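Reopening this ticket.

The earlier resolution said the output was attached, but the attachment link was broken on my side. Pasting everything inline this time so it's all in one place.
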Amino acid sequence: MVAIKHILIPVCALFIVTTSAHAQKKQFTITEATNGISTTLAPQSIKQPTWQPVKDKLYQVEKNGDEDMWTAITFPSGKKDTVITQNSLSSALSETYKSMPVIKWLDEDYAYFTKGRNVTLGLQHAGGFNWIPWASLPADADNMTYDKHRLIAYTVDNNLWMVNRDKKNIQVTNEPNKNILNGQAVHRNEFGIETGIFFSPMGNYLAYYRMDQTMVNDYPIIKWDTVPAHADIIKYPMAGGTSHQVTLCVYNPATGNTVTMKTGTPKDQYLTAVTWSPDEKYIYIALLNRDQNHLRLNKYSAETGSLVQTLFDESSTKYVHPTHPLYFVPEHNDEFVWWSERDGYEHLYLYNTNGKLQHKLTTGNWVVNEITGYNKNNDQLIITASKESPLEKDIYTVSLKGKLERIDKGTGMHTALCSSDGRYVLDVYNGAGIPRKTVVRSTDGSFNKTLLTSKDPLADYDRPTIKNITLKADDGTSLYGKLILPTHFDASRKYPVIVYLYNGPNVQLIHNSFPESGNLWYEYMAQRGYIVFTMDGRGSWNRGLKFEQATYKHLGDVEIKDQLVGVDYLMSLPYVDQERMGLHGWSFGGFMTTSIMLKHPGIFKAAVAGGPVIDWKMYEVMYTERYMSTPQKNPEGYENANLLTKVKNLKGKLLLIHGTADNTVVWQNSIDFIKKSVDEGVQVDYFVYPGHEHNVRGKDRVHLMQKVTDYFDLYLKP
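Inline output:
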């Protein structure tokens, strides 16, 4: 073991879960441990909750015997009405519905649902709903976007279509080149980009991304489900290489004309935070340079595409990371909220449309997580934030002058679903000892009603003791983790250990949540006699820029130092068997797992790395260059993180796992590692999941976790 000096301070060792009457408790099956918390062992919840726009009515799906009902509760009275039943819907449409479809509101009068590619529209009236066919979309339609003005936009292959107010299918683009995409998410879904389609507020225009990736290198994704196998050719821009070029277009259905926003050069800049002005005259776009250290928030004319004004700039010596569009304040059409980490934490800033800062709405050493609604009567945003603790999330109101008030109760992780006027919030939360609680609260604090207190679905299981652990990094930063002890724990024995880690950007593993362990597979392994440890080190999310950017240009350096703090803590425990320690992680965690096995060989006897990045030069431009710059500008950082040059250092057993259709961390990463292992005469174990992309999901995930479990049993069990 390489000697590294760490400061280790176990600040908190709170027992959260203890077991009793072990002989009467059940053991988790591998299926339950893998998928149970989202299926058979999920805490009871309200199904498909949604607020009707304008009205203070909360809709949900309930069971009446074998039949689904769509019911509505009016607040504050609490009066409940049955709006639709499964059988009445089948009768109205002369079609059998085996369950209630997911019904979504367009506005206070109209709702819709989909069945396959058929879309049904409903108009609510005093007696219920009139249901009529709205649209029949092509079988290969994708990226469907529904607008409150009863418009639909969708893509077929690389082109954009829409269903207009006359229910006609209109082709918006007719691009023959398959490598020029219209109406799809761009920049590989970085920067919070989830869609490529943006209806204007009144439905008169349709904005969309156009991405030209003809200049990007082809990359084959091999499909093995046919004989012979075939290659799907994708465009995959790798760090330091040629990236795609994106523009934003505006289509006018009334004239059939399209205007392109004049976003200028360089053409490989990033177009983020696309937002319409409430009057439809302007489009706001945040332009981020390829180096990702300079952002300009620009205002463009939707009619001509011309630049009207640069409202403000943001720059950083490391990177600027915009992930949110503008939030125009309802009934304040000249004011919007901008998200920024400029002061070190993600906070909210109120600007006018001339770019003048009005107020900093939130401040402090904590992170705003979401804007979930707006109370029009009191001019208050409704937000969630990790103000009390980075391990929790609570609901707050914040006025346009910056007055902040917490409105929820109970420690843990709160999610908020707001009524359209912001008077009420559906607060669904969980935490230590709280499987799930669902409460309707008024945002002024005058009303709250518990709708559901879920029973503990794990009450009959033999569960381990779980300790919250706080350690210290070498710079004094607090690091939060969890220690899961074996069931029937005996402090006089020595136990094998599994460390599970991720420790990469935009992810946080440790929360005050249910189940307290964070993962039932940890508890399954505890039942099998393992200690399990997991911890968020510097570089992970929700702790502010200093915490996240500590890894800048040197991925796999500071993160490993922090994880070794956890290792040293484990080795200080008398009941840890230092000769039988295992390590497991996926994606960035797979990179971390492989890195530790090669950079600090001999600590772990066995490890399993899933979907690992092996050489960051083979990962995508947007993510990699944000954290590592380019290989040309940061050759030392890339070389230090390149695991192909360190294969010969391996000691112990290493199993690599990869999905053969992985288009996120391409399969070549682990294939090259295997080739290098052969060249170096190093023995490693390898397993692939044919047809799976970056994550192995569904029933096959049970197979995956059994594979991981068996590997640790083989090499770590006495």
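Reporter confirms the inline version is readable. The radius of gyration is 27 Å. The first strand starts at residue 14 and ends at 15.
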